[in-house]
């Protein structure tokens, strides 16, 4: 049910965003294309998750003949979140034009890019050969505790990045010379991004409970929270664009 709610929220909010763009500027910006790409990748994730629920995603390794779908999940989450975060950073840098803000924005973006590359490469190379990660019938080995370590490190770095992205605009909004009610509304709107931080934190807690000898036994919960993090990120990233539709 959480995945379905996330699917509806992210899809509807993006359609509303694009409609608002059409009403105001009659064209799409770069950040809109990044968010659309992020939504498409999130569809692949939720499709994979529903497929996995019908093919044994929650089973332990020994009862699975092939777990390629779970490996795909681990590799698609960082690029999806990178696209979503890039969209938000581009939008913030467009409307908050101070030099200091833009410098910090690009530092955060570069850190996000390195996080994505590091997570994908680490996931791919943690086993020798890499295919041993999902197929234990062949000869090979994986670095001890690496599966969970990479996931936890990735979750923590991602969470810190989310906090930075959503905190950065708040001091500027607090100094705007507008009426107090409007300023408070804008701050609350951007602060909704902390729901993304919350889902990242819950996913981190889920990863902590993953058993070493049967990583797929926790994959269902990990998949759900991974997708929910994506969908909430997309929804929160779209909210600032919906004001024109609300009058």
From TrEMBL:
<keyword id="KW-0812">Transmembrane</keyword>
<dbReference type="Pfam" id="PF20684">
    <property type="entry name" value="Fung_rhodopsin"/>
</dbReference>
<comment type="similarity">
    <text>Belongs to the SAT4 family.</text>
</comment>
<feature type="domain" description="Rhodopsin">
    <location>
        <begin position="16"/>
        <end position="246"/>
    </location>
</feature>
<dbReference type="GO" id="GO:0016020">
    <property type="term" value="C:membrane"/>
</dbReference>
<feature type="transmembrane region" description="Helical">
    <location>
        <begin position="72"/>
        <end position="91"/>
    </location>
</feature>
<dbReference type="InterPro" id="IPR049326">
    <property type="entry name" value="Rhodopsin_dom_fungi"/>
</dbReference>
<feature type="transmembrane region" description="Helical">
    <location>
        <begin position="33"/>
        <end position="52"/>
    </location>
</feature>
<feature type="transmembrane region" description="Helical">
    <location>
        <begin position="225"/>
        <end position="245"/>
    </location>
</feature>
<keyword id="KW-1133">Transmembrane helix</keyword>
<feature type="transmembrane region" description="Helical">
    <location>
        <begin position="103"/>
        <end position="125"/>
    </location>
</feature>
<protein>
    <recommendedName>
        <fullName>Rhodopsin domain-containing protein</fullName>
    </recommendedName>
</protein>
<keyword id="KW-0472">Membrane</keyword>
<dbReference type="InterPro" id="IPR052337">
    <property type="entry name" value="SAT4-like"/>
</dbReference>
<feature type="transmembrane region" description="Helical">
    <location>
        <begin position="6"/>
        <end position="24"/>
    </location>
</feature>
<feature type="transmembrane region" description="Helical">
    <location>
        <begin position="184"/>
        <end position="205"/>
    </location>
</feature>
<feature type="transmembrane region" description="Helical">
    <location>
        <begin position="145"/>
        <end position="172"/>
    </location>
</feature>
């Amino acid at each position: 049910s959480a995945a379905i709610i996330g699917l509806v929220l992210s899809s509807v909010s993006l359609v509303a965003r694009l409609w608002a763009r059409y009403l105001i500027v009659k064209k799409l910006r770069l950040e809109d294309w990044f968010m659309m790409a992020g939504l498409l990748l999130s569809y692949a994730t939720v499709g994979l998750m529903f497929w996995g629920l019908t093919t044994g995603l929650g089973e332990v390794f020994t009862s699975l003949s092939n777990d390629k779908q779970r490996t795909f999940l681990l590799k698609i989450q960082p690029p999806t979140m990178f696209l979503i975060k890039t969209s938000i950073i581009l939008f913030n840098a467009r409307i908050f034009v101070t030099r200091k803000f833009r410098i910090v924005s690009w530092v955060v973006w570069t850190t996000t890019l390195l996080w994505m590359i590091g997570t994908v490469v680490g996931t791919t190379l943690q086993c020798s050969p890499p295919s041993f990660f999902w197929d234990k019938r062949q000869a090979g080995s994986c670095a001890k505790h690496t599966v969970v370590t990479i996931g936890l490190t990735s979750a923590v770095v991602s969470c810190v990045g989310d906090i930075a992205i959503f905190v950065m605009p708040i001091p500027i909004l607090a100094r705007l010379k507008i009426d107090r009610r409007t300023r408070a509304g804008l701050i609350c709107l951007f602060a909704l991004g902390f729901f993304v931080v919350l889902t990242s934190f819950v996913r981190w807690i889920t990863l902590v409970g993953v058993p070493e000898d049967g990583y797929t036994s926790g994959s269902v919960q990990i998949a759900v929270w991974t997708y929910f993090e994506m969908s909430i990120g997309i929804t929160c990233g779209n909210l600032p664009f919906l004001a024109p539709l609300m009058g």
